[in-house]
Amino acid sequence: MHYDFKKIEEKWQKKWAKAHVFRAQADSTRKKYYLLEMFPYPSGKIHMGHVRNYTIGDVASRFKTLEGYNVMHPMGFDAFGQPAENAAIKNKTKPVDWTHKCIKDMETELKKMGFSYDWEREVSTCDSDYYKWNQWIFLKMFERGLAYRKASGVNWCPSCQTTLANEEVIEGGCWRCHTKVEQKDLVQWYLKITEYKERLLEDLNQLKNWPQRVLAMQNNWIGKSSGVDIYFRLENSDRTIPVFTTRVDTIFGATYIVLAPEHPLVLDLVKDKPQEKEVLQFMKKVARESKLVRTASDVKKEGVFTGSFAINPVNNEKVPIWIADYVLMEYGTGAIMAVPTHDQRDFLFAKEHKLPLRVVIEPKDKSISSAAELSEAYEGDGRQVNSGEFNGLDNQEAKTRIAQWMEAKGIGKIQTHFRLRDWLISRQRYWGTPIPMIYCPACGIVPVPYKDLPVELPASAPFTGEGGSPLGKVKKFVEVKCPKCKGQARRETDTMATFFDSSWYFLRFCSPKFNDAPFDVKEAKYWMMVDQYIGGIEHAILHLLYSRFFTKFFQDLKMIDFTEPFDKLLTQGMVLKDGEVMSKSKGNIVDPDSMIKNYGADALRLFILFAAPPETELEWEERGLEGAYKFLNRVWRIQENLKSNADLQVLRALHRTIKKVSTDFSEFKFNTAIASFMELTNVIYQLGADKKVFSDFVIMLSPIAPHFCEELWEILGYNESIFKAPWPKFNPELLIEENVELVIQVNGKLRSKIEVPRNIAEDKLKELVLKDEKLISWFEGKSPKKIIIVPQKLINIVI
RNA sequence: GCGGAGGUGGUGGAAUGGCAGACACGCAGGUCUCAGAAGCCUGUGCCGCAAGGUGUGAGGGUUCAACUCCCUCCCUCCGCACCA
């Protein structure tokens, strides 16, 4: 009645493991396929998101295997990170023990899903033979000036008690716990990702097989903008203030300039001026404001006059210098020229503080006689006015001309600014990779020698979750001899951000046990790039950007000869319940494990692929899972009723399915592939199938329901694993039907259908159609004006 | 504001110039059964008894033919954002 999924799934999982069916080995005579899914954080339980991600990957991997590729499909664990510390505090265990237990539990759950991983390649980032290479990479970066220490205001999460990278601040809050992020002055380690900004941007063009939106997000994040740095000279001084603008065509309309409150010049500017007190007060107020408040778009722009003036270099006009909260120190030069007539923010600010306005761009179709008539800034294109020798020019042209003119006169410089900042990687946490640096009172900052790697994490530390680096409290860890002078020195006690760990793991999988370097160059040459990468959209910026950065760094080290790590990228949609993301707090979590218990892993895999295309969100529907299970039972019953010969019609249906499924699988259209399996099943239910037809069907279904199909394969009498079988090929002759059904339209509307021989002559066809009784009344006695024939599809008669 | 993805039955979705709604879920009816479950069969966009009409966010256009291409607009989701 029902197939025994529990027995079957356990049986095949054991067999696969025992026979090392999924072991991957480099073989230069075979075409490789490296399929990778984003590795999980070992929380101890897999969730539906994992199930979806890994099922998509598993089907692709098994399909490629059947197609004859040498497939590598590895799995590992992104095992460092804060939850381990929290759990350890709560359960009074060590993070290392908690993490290893979670990894074990997750392995078990992943294996229950029947995923085809080469477990011999498994890596965990918290093992010292992995993080040793984090340290190695860090040292290489340090040697090349790409890792450096800097004191600056950093993002600080008061709840996690640690720093955050810019990328980890979401809407002013911590990406993990959403606590409002504070600013704090600290000396921290940074990676100079900005050195790669042009390449990171430029090479996005190579990523033809990435989703548009991911490319857009990366592009956005790097944030290149081109314009001109203009040098405003301070009145009665030789000092200049560079301001950045993308609208140099509006320079003649600049009526004041604005500095960020943190701008280093401000204190000098106001010294002994009557405005000093007010300005200092304003600076204090802004410093107190969190960035969240300050950048909220609906907040009124506030600012104060500094009492100083600057000279606009294009017309020697004296303009007041203000400071305002809407100018940010971290972007551009931290100073802007304000053109209230052509920038809406400047417009509002000028109105508020009664600053002068001057129109310098007129729309093509009307003239603006006075700035007073403007009710908002005119930000569009037009013709230059009040712009000296540039009057009358089209503003786009003026942009280039003015920029060149300013460069020639030495009053400006064509300049490009980026939004991308260097990557802050120091974390005041215990459970992470120790940064391999030593501070010596005599020699300064000294890198740990390569031969002393790894700098091992002590087995435990007094981490309470309350402030400071826990490693700083471990005397045996901190106190060290200086590698240079052998004097007493201190270790760095911060650890690396965990995104460091995941920025190169795809390379480690190529040679996970290699002892001389992060990866074996020869193995990487064979396996890389990753042909298909699959993961959540939440990693569209951080993880993918960092991985691209590391790859370019390895290229510069001449360890690899490619520049991008991931050829194709698929970002799978989320799994929703009642229209919402599954989460503990909403209490709407569906546990994969209980679904496996009730319906089996194969049914779960089938449902999750059938319910929606991979990139779209998927609404969880247990009835749908029941349906998947019902379908598998239907297929099972075919095997119990095989005939000795198959109908020609069934054979045709099979070959149609082979054709459809082959393309659908390679395009990740699993939902429609499954629909054609169902259609084929419906045909077989009417007409029956023989062993040959059913065997091909089972092979095609096996990537989706591997245990189920292995079992059927065995029942059919085959000895070897179904995954050694060749993917079926369709016979084009069987796709050609003798007779075809043509649709007949009158004036584009469906009026009749007709079955005719495939190669019927057009004349004959016309004759046949015009005699059709069903159609005659639609002709209304008139004769056809035109007859359009689309061979083997339709006829449209225009009356 | 900028950028990206979308809008199709009661639901998930299919069709990328050629029969709109494949395939499923749900629902209705039938069959089997003492009965139920399971299975199997049939029907199912909407209006209409029917003939037929109508229908892919709205409006316009191109075409013999438009969910699909073009124009105008509306809405939803996602990313970035006082970025100069």
The overall strand count is: 32
Helical stretch count? 27
Low-confidence region ranges? none
Work out the helicity level.
Answer: 25-40%
Percent in strands: 15-25%
Radius of gyration: 34 Å
Secondary-structure-based class equals alpha+beta
> How many strands, what sense, and barrel or not for the largest sheet?
7 strands, mixed
Overall 3D shape: flat
How would you state the average pLDDT, rounded? 91
N/C terminus separation: 58 Å
Can you describe this structure?
By secondary structure, the chain is of the alpha+beta class. 37% of the residues lie in helices and 20% in strands. The protein is built from 27 helices and 32 strands. The strands form nine sheets. Strands 8, 9, 10, 11, 12, 13 and 16 form a seven-stranded mixed β-sheet that branches. Helix 3 packs across helix 4. The longest helix has 19 residues, at 48-66. The chain is flat and about 105 Å long. It starts with a helix and ends with a strand. The mean pLDDT is 91.
Short description:
With 799 residues, the chain is an alpha+beta fold.
Q: Secondary-structure map with pairings?
A:
Elements: H1 5-19, E1 32-37, H2 48-66, E2 70-72, H3 82-91, H4 95-112, H5 128-143, E3 147-157, E4 162-164, E5 169-170, E6 173-174, E7 182-191, H6 197-202, H7 212-222, E8 225-234, E9 240-245, E10 256-259, H8 266-270, H9 276-288, H10 291-294, E11 303-312, E12 317-324, E13 335-338, H11 344-353, E14 361-362, E15 383-384, H12 395-409, E16 412-417, E17 423-424, E18 426-427, E19 437-440, E20 444-447, H13 475-478, E21 479-481, E22 488-491, E23 495-496, H14 498-501, H15 505-508, H16 521-527, E24 530-536, H17 542-556, E25 566-572, E26 575-577, E27 580-581, H18 592-599, H19 601-610, E28 618-619, H20 622-640, H21 648-666, H22 670-687, H23 691-701, H24 706-715, H25 732-735, E29 739-746, E30 749-757, H26 762-771, H27 773-779, E31 786-790, E32 794-798
Parallel strand pairs: 1-2, 1-24, 10-12, 24-25, 26-28, 29-32
Antiparallel strand pairs: 3-4, 3-7, 5-6, 7-17, 8-9, 8-11, 8-16, 10-13, 11-12, 14-15, 18-23, 19-20, 19-22, 21-22, 26-27, 29-30, 31-32
Helix pairs in contact: 1-24, 3-4, 18-19, 19-20, 20-22, 21-22, 21-23, 23-24
The structure holds one RNA strand of 84 nucleotides.
